[in-house]
Structure formats: structure tokens, C-alpha cells
Design brief:
With 298 residues, this protein is α/β, with parallel strands linked by helices. It contains ten helices and eleven strands. It binds guanine. The site of guanine has 8 residues, from strand 4 and helix 6.
Length: 298
């Protein structure tokens, strides 16, 4: 029986934070530019507030200029668009992120598409999606979660995935689709699966690389996984957990971690896997945008 290597996203993110902080400091000293990140939150969704606070704290710890703009949950579409227009025109801001989900009455697509593509550090603008889909990542912003997953995969097996089968579970615009584009660019043979996929366990069983991004706690079982596969768990599900007879709320992924550990070659834990790496990718994208603004390469 194998025991999967635990891919430590928290440790890797801490390492990357050191180099991002150092590069940001160099950019400031040599070009007088401090990377600036603006995070927009509409309403008071508690989970979104936690995410936004983490992003702000991480940006500050990397030495970035960091602003948070909070709008009331009854803010109008015009209010949000006006704020984005202001941030698009603000030379101190290199990255703009509107935290999703937005309240129901707002048009999410119109809002994400209003962000200037060169400041779209979430990689949600059609210009950035188009570049990624065309395989041109040299000047595109890649969405943070799939970028984080890709770095962890590369760390495990290198950047050329020729001959590898990758199965992505979930077809969202934020994770599943851009993940597939990155895997294709790295020469993997990619299958995207979703809720309408037939015989999902059998499809997953053919995968050397599995990326689970569905939002269903512990859905991916050990008998779905090929011996030695790399398993990346994007799920962050709030569930009741019993530890030492005490029941508390805790986080769990989309993968049945303990059981899959006995089969997989490497696996990301939840928490401490993809999550911390995603925030660092946001910082990497913001730094990249600031460097582009100075005429430098990313
Ligand atoms: N909500 C959940 N994930 C994300 C993300 O990657 N970006 C934004 N803007 N909102 C999110």
C-alpha cells in the first residue's frame, strides 16, 4: 500500500510570498512602483468577508498598496460600475478583484467584463480567457485557483505532461474550464467532467492527474483513483466534524482524503492545500500587472 505524499500548499505559499515580497521591493526601489490591489466586496456574506480580509492581509504583508472597497448589499449596478471605472483609472491600482458571488440583483458578467483587462488579476475578462484558451499566457492573467493547481502539479511531475491523462471534475468558468486550458497547454490529455457525466468513477480511474472542483464534500472516493495518481482538491466545504467526541464546524474538500491517501501518489489537503496557494497567485498576478505597467516582463 502506498501512502500519498501530502502536498503542503501552506509551506509552498509561504516560500512564494518571500520571493513576491522581494520582487515587489525591487520594483519599488528601481521603478518607484508599489503594486496596488483593490478588492471590491458588495454586501456582507460572511465567507466572502473572510476571503477578502485574507487577501488584504496577504497583500499588505507582501508590501503592496492594498485597498478594500465595501458597498452595501443593495448597491446598484451603476454604483458598482462607477467604482470599477474609478479603479480602472487609478494609476496606484494594478489589480482589481470583485469578490464573487454578488447579490442576485447585480449582473455579474457585466461587472467582471467592466474591469480593464490589464488590471483583471482574477483572469475573468473575456480578453484574458481568450488568451489563455489560445495558449498565449505570456501577457494573460490566469485565474488564481487553476494557476495554483498547475504550480503544484508542476512541482510534483514537471511542466511537460505529455502522455498524462488529466481529469477535471467541474466545469466552472473560475476553475474547471481554465484548468483544462492550462493542462492542455502543458500537453496533458484532458477530460472535463461534470454533473451530467456518465460513469464518473470509471472516467476518473483513467487519470494520472485528478483536479476536483465540484463543491461536494468527500465525493471522490478511493476506488475511483488510479494507484499513484496526483489528486488536487479544490473543494472548500463547511461541514460538521467530530474530533475527540466534540462536534464542530470544519472544512473538508471534495476528496475523501484519508481513504484516497492510501491509493494516490500525492494529494493536497483541505485546508492547507490549494487555498493558501490561490491567494498567493493573486499576489503574483498583481505584481505581474505592476511590472507590465513599468514596461517590464511579467
Ligand atoms: N469567489 C470565490 N472564488 C473567487 C475568485 O477566485 N475570485 C473572486 N473574485 N471571487 C471568488
Amino acid at each position: 500500500m502506498t501512502v500519498a505524499r501530502r502536498i503542503d500548499g501552506k509551506a509552498k505559499a509561504a516560500e512564494l510570498a518571500v520571493s513576491i515580497t522581494s520582487d515587489a521591493s525591487t520594483l519599488l526601489v528601481e521603478h518607484g512602483i508599489r503594486p496596488g490591489l483593490a478588492v471590491v466586496i458588495v454586501g456582507e456574506d460572511p465567507a466572502s468577508q473572510v476571503y477578502v480580509r485574507n487577501k488584504k492581509r496577504t497583500a499588505e504583508s507582501c508590501g503592496f498598496h492594498s485597498v478594500q472597497r465595501t458597498l452595501a448589499d443593495d448597491a446598484s449596478q451603476t454604483d458598482v460600475l462607477q467604482l470599477i471605472e474609478d479603479l480602472n483609472g487609478d494609476a496606484a491600482i494594478h489589480g482589481i478583484l470583485v469578490q464573487l458571488p454578488l447579490p442576485e440583483h447585480l449582473d455579474e458578467q457585466a461587472i467582471t467584463q467592466a474591469i480593464e483587462p490589464s488590471k483583471d488579476v482574477d483572469g475573468f475578462h473575456f480578453v484574458n480567457i481568450g488568451k489563455l484558451t489560445a495558449g498565449r499566457t505570456s501577457d494573460a492573467f490566469v485565474p488564481c485557483t487553476p494557476a495554483a493547481c498547475m504550480l503544484m502539479i508542476e512541482d510534483e511531475i514537471g511542466s511537460d505532461l505529455s502522455g498524462k491523462n488529466a481529469v477535471v471534475i467541474g466545469r466552472s468558468n473560475i476553475v474547471g474550464k481554465p484548468m483544462a486550458s492550462l493542462l492542455i497547454k502543458a500537453n496533458a490529455t484532458v477530460t472535463i467532467t461534470h454533473s451530467r457525466t456518465k460513469d464518473l468513477p470509471q472516467v476518473v480511474a483513467g487519470a494520472d492527474i485528478v483536479v476536483a472542483a465540484v463543491g461536494r464534500p468527500n465525493m471522490v472516493k478511493a476506488d475511483w483513483i488510479k494507484e499513484g495518481a496526483i489528486v488536487i482538491d479544490v473543494g472548500i466545504n463547511r461541514v460538521e466534524k467530530t474530533v475527540d467526541g466534540e462536534t464542530k464546524m470544519g472544512l473538508t474538500g471534495d476528496v475523501d482524503y484519508d481513504a484516497v491517501c492510501a491509493v494516490a501518489g500525492a494529494i493536497t489537503p483541505v485546508p492547507g492545500g490549494v487555498g493558501p496557494m490561490t491567494i498567493i497567485m493573486l499576489m503574483a498576478n498583481t505584481l505581474r500587472s505592476a511590472r507590465f505597467s513599468a514596461g517590464l516582463e511579467g
